[in-house]
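Field reference: sequence -> structure
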Amino acid sequence: MATLDNTYVDFLLEPPQQEEDITSEREESGTRVPVCKKRELEYLSTHGKIFHKIQDLSSTGDHRRYIITMAKPQLKRWYSSRDSSCSTKANIVLIGAGWWSQGWHLPHLHRNEEVTISAIVDSSPHPTSNLDPNLESLTTLATKYNCPIFHSLSELLESPIGKSMDGALVCTPHATHYAIGVELIQEAKRRYEEDEKNYKPLSVLMEKPMTTDVDEAIQLHTLLLERKEADKHKKDENDQRIGGGIGCFLVNHSANFRPQARAAHELIETGKLGDIRHVTAFFASPLSWIFDDPSNTGWNEKRGSMLGNGFAWGQQSHILSWIYHVAGVENLVPSKVFCHMTKSDKTGADVSHAATVICSNGATFSLSGTSLLPGNAHSDPPVAKRIEIKIFGTKGAVIYRGDDRDPSSGKLEWLRGDDEEEMGAVEVQCPDLGFEFEDLDQDGNGPASLQCFIDSCLGLDYYVGADCLTGLRSVQTIEAMYRSHVSGNCESIVDSTEES
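Structure field:
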């Protein structure tokens, strides 16, 4: 773990007027301060280098100046990431080597100079996917990324690599997440019990949805609470680790880690909207080609306790996670759900739904979504997903809408109701960023969710955009949606394993 204190430092960011100017340093009031372009500021903010405060000192046009307040660990991280001599790296294991791993996770991790891909784990020597017929074998991946391969998690955990890894990124079929999560938590527990003072924390980034079984989601959350409880009296108050062997347990809802989500969450957390009373949300994805294809069994076929599979598990989990994170998992606790779904004639997968969610405090939200938007989200050029979220409180509202391939298509708006003189006024949050939701970019080092996971692996502070409780709320809601569709009735949320 980093031994730096958590005091904050201020420095100036001022974009050079010439685009080709490189980042440098200059004297400012007797202090050495970094100088960089505005676009670098936005890049850093978007990719997980967390600022405590940004004060805009802009005049007009493109000449912008900022005073940035950043925690010292993040400031050191920023300088270290620009220093090729920095030797500290996170040892990360990738579990699951399918379409998303080969197209996104492995290239992102490989490009990151702060990461060593320690191993790849997959039960198949040559993963296959109808979404990409050209997937590479594990042998080829081992050569390409210069790492060993394992065919099971237990095999990995018996090896020195498994015992020394900093983090595990889990990208396997939805129904396998629970068993893998339990094994990783048990490994973290073993480390803690072996050496409580000097154990190496194990961080986990789990692909969404966290599970597709509500009992399993509850049990994962319970196991993590036990680890947190295990050494709560031993941890430093500034230590962000869950504890008991665990560094972090994040769910890879990349939209939750965007600056816009953080800004919306802060508005609600600081009381700007008052008590949350109503939410409306709509999500349309151009993914019929997935849910209408019988060969895409992982997306369309029921497994285990699942009452259905399709758009709700595969896509609507994104928007639910965003709502629960931004509004606060304690502010919106789902209690009852009524839902109707329409199904694909070819696969039986759900392709659209309309749902009403009633929360324990009386708040309601209306949720609808569909995969019937024409086009292909992964074609060249891709067709954008369409998102619209409105959160209403007793003192104001937040509206966030647009398409996820065009930042200029929308913005995050705060409609004020907290001040008589400003009643109804609209304040745009993160005006330079516009609308962004999932981060699907295959270039670069990956989304902010991945960067926050890496931060945890390195022992640094990280933003918790989607933790296990957020994942649990999403699973509880979706599972009740399927039950309601089957029964035709309003169904209660399962909040303990005894109730199911």
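Note: Residues 1-52, 57-66, 70-87 have pLDDT under 50 and may be disordered.
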